[in-house]
Each structure stands twice: as structure tokens, then as C-alpha cells.
Structure to design on (218 residues):
């Protein structure tokens, strides 16, 4: 089956099969949050990005193998509603950006800084700290040695623009700067983008619109 990245709450997951990594995308909760289950194909170790809502659905997706880790992309409540229950059921270690950890009610085992590596089995993800949507938002970059990169952007980057900065010009300027310098300037057009809500995109699809985003201020 060809991966589309189009999922809906209550519907089936969509699975992106890479050579070393399996990426399962599922939509949960009243705000249509995306959660991503990553599985190393060599070791079967699993990592969950954003235990956003509906612990039952997430645990069903995780399956009997459990997860070693769960990463919360940022402090907003719609991204951690199921975190406590998922951690209690799996014993997973928790990761979050250092400057957002205090806003997440489940203790963060590993505070994450810009450039840190998070492993799932033999696969390495690189965290980048982007400031603007929240003080400590992180995105995770998987630089696939067999193909193009993949980036899990939380609420920092979507099809059509960056995340909500609540009409704060300073926060918007900060987020645009970090998205451009840490994502667009260093990753190719083929990079696949997995956002915290909605459909996927690529950097190539979004890059031509950066001047428009600057001009409109959101």
C-alpha cells in the first residue's frame, strides 16, 4: 500500500515503510492530533511521538511489543492527554524539550536540547529546538541513509505555514527564523514533513511560500 499520510480520528492508521524504520501515523482526539509510532526494523524497538489522546487507541497501535520511549514535541495539552496512561502501561522513558518540560504534567525523564540524539533501536533521530510556538518545542529529524530525510514537526510547521504564534510578532519572527535556519536551510526539498495535525507535506512543496508567510506575519 502506498503511504498517503491521510488519517482521520476513528479510522485506520497509515504506515510509511522505510528500509530501516516503520512509521505508523494515527489521528486521535477532538483536535485531530497526529501520533506517530516509530519501529526500528532491525530490533523491533518502538518509540511514540506525542501521546496526544485516546490511550486505548494508542496502546492498540503500539501492540504487545510496548514502547521504549515517548517523545512529547511541546507542552500544549492536546499533545499529552494520554501520556500518563501510556507511560503507566508501557514503562516508557519520557523525552521533551528542556524548556517545555515544566509545562507537561508527566515528569520528563530526559530533557532534550538542540542537536541531541534520540535513538529507537539502531535508528537515530536528531532533535532541533524551535522557539516561537512554545519556548521549548522540538522537532525530530530522521536522516534516512537509504533515501531522503523525514522530519516530525509537532506544531512548528504545517502545510501552508508555521505554527500558531498568537499574533505575537516577536514569537512569529523567532519561529520563522528557527524553521528556516534549522529545517529549510539544511534539509532538501524531498524531506517528508509529518506535522502534529492534518496531512503531511514536503519541504519542497512549502519552500516557495516562505516569502508569503513572512509578508502575512503568520
Amino acid at each position: 500500500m502506498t503511504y498517503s499520510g491521510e488519517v482521520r480520528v476513528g479510522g485506520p492508521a497509515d504506515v510509511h515503510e522505510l528500509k530501516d524504520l516503520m512509521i505508523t501515523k494515527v489521528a486521535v482526539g477532538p483536535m485531530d492530533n497526529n501520533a506517530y509510532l516509530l519501529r526500528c526494523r532491525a530490533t523491533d524497538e518502538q518509540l511514540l511521538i506525542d501521546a496526544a489522546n485516546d490511550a486505548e487507541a494508542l496502546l492498540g497501535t503500539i501492540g504487545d511489543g510496548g514502547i521504549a520511549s515517548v517523545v512529547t514535541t511541546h507542552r500544549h495539552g492536546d499533545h499529552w492527554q494520554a501520556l500518563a496512561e501510556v507511560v503507566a502501561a508501557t514503562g516508557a522513558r519520557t523525552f521533551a524539550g528542556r524548556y517545555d518540560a515544566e509545562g507537561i504534567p508527566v515528569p520528563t525523564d530526559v530533557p532534550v536540547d538542540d542537536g541531541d540524539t534520540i535513538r529507537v533501536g539502531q535508528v537515530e533521530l536528531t532533535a532541533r529546538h524551535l522557539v516561537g510556538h512554545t519556548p521549548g518545542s522540538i522537532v525530530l529529524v530522521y536522516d534516512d541513509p537509504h533515501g531522503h530525510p523525514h522530519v516530525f514537526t509537532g506544531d512548528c510547521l504545517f502545510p501552508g505555514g508555521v505554527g500558531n504564534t498568537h499574533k505575537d510578532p516577536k514569537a512569529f519572527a523567532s519561529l520563522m527564523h528557527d524553521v528556516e535556519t534549522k529545517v529549510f536551510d539544511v534539509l532538501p526539498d524531498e524531506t517528508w514533513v509529518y506535522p502534529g495535525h492534518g496531512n503531511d507535506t514536503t519541504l519542497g512543496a512549502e519552500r516557495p511560500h516562505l516569502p508569503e508567510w513572512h509578508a502575512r506575519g503568520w
Remarks:
- Helices lie at 55-62, 83-90, 169-184, 203-206, 210-216.
